Amino acid sequence: MSDTEPGRIHVDLSGKTAIVTGASRGIGKAIAIALGSAGAKVACVARNKEKLDETVSEITSAGGAAEAFAIDVADAEAVPAFVEKLADDWESVDILVNNAGITRDTLLPRMSDDDWDSVISTNLRSVFLFSRAASGAMMRSKKGRIINISSTSGLAGNPAQTNYSASKAGVIGFTRTAARELASKRRHITVNAICPGFIATDMTAALKEAAGEDAIEKRIKEIVPLQRQGEAEEVADAVLFLASDSASYINGQVLTVDGGMTA
Ligand code: NDP
Known about the structure:
Layout: E1 17-21, H1 26-37, E2 41-46, H2 49-61, E3 65-70, H3 78-89, E4 95-98, H4 113-141, E5 144-149, H5 162-182, E6 189-196, H6 202-211, H7 213-223, H8 232-243, E7 254-257
Bound molecules: NADPH dihydro-nicotinamide-adenine-dinucleotide phosphate.
């Protein structure tokens, strides 16, 4: 087994339901597949229905259960309506993974209102909309796991990412407060965040295209002690752990998955 091969963590989530936002590709797709193969029934959310259907068919062809829902995660009407209907139809929302995110990188003097608003809406407002709606269902069923995908850019500054850093730092603040609010002895709800570092997806491929592949590879070797990019499945493994019964006493924490970049 290579050190990046998926499936090193074995978790049983049978009988549980999960929502994964941004499940059409990248980290979210890997998370949806990991939760599906652990036995959870997965609601895969993103805008691109065709790509979502690909995620769903990967899960179902491996014997899991999943459905695709084409929704804009920043839509304040569509999100609560979707979560409430799903909680009725599927009888619970046990796991919520707020993963959908975008970048609109540019230096501050050149950042447009739209660059700012779209990143904050997609990356932060979505976390509020989904968590508010799902927390009602979780409180009713007296169990739940909310796992928010932040970023190492939410822990430390990153030039050209004031919008993105602010959104991801916001996700961490949201996580810590929601963890305190939703936790109680009877409710069994936890809220945690994961900060991925440099993970190979479309998002980082765009960065490589802009800066040049060699330059990015060189930079990774300089700043990441493990000297390589992470794989989406390595973030999914951390999600599986936080979603599992083994993480029942972990609440309000920020788990960094970055090869030691922020160590
Ligand atoms: P990708 O660009 O590969 O995928 C982003 C996902 O988010 C897609 O499924 C996309 O689906 C979805 N999405 C974007 N906007 C919306 C929207 N308005 N409504 C619904 N879905 C949306 O990104 P990654 O997989 O790399 O990133 C996933 C998460 O991890 C993000 O939150 C990102 O910030 C975070 N992260 C990533 C890192 C990395 O190195 N890759 C590092 C640190 C954090 P669609 O376009 O179909 O709507």
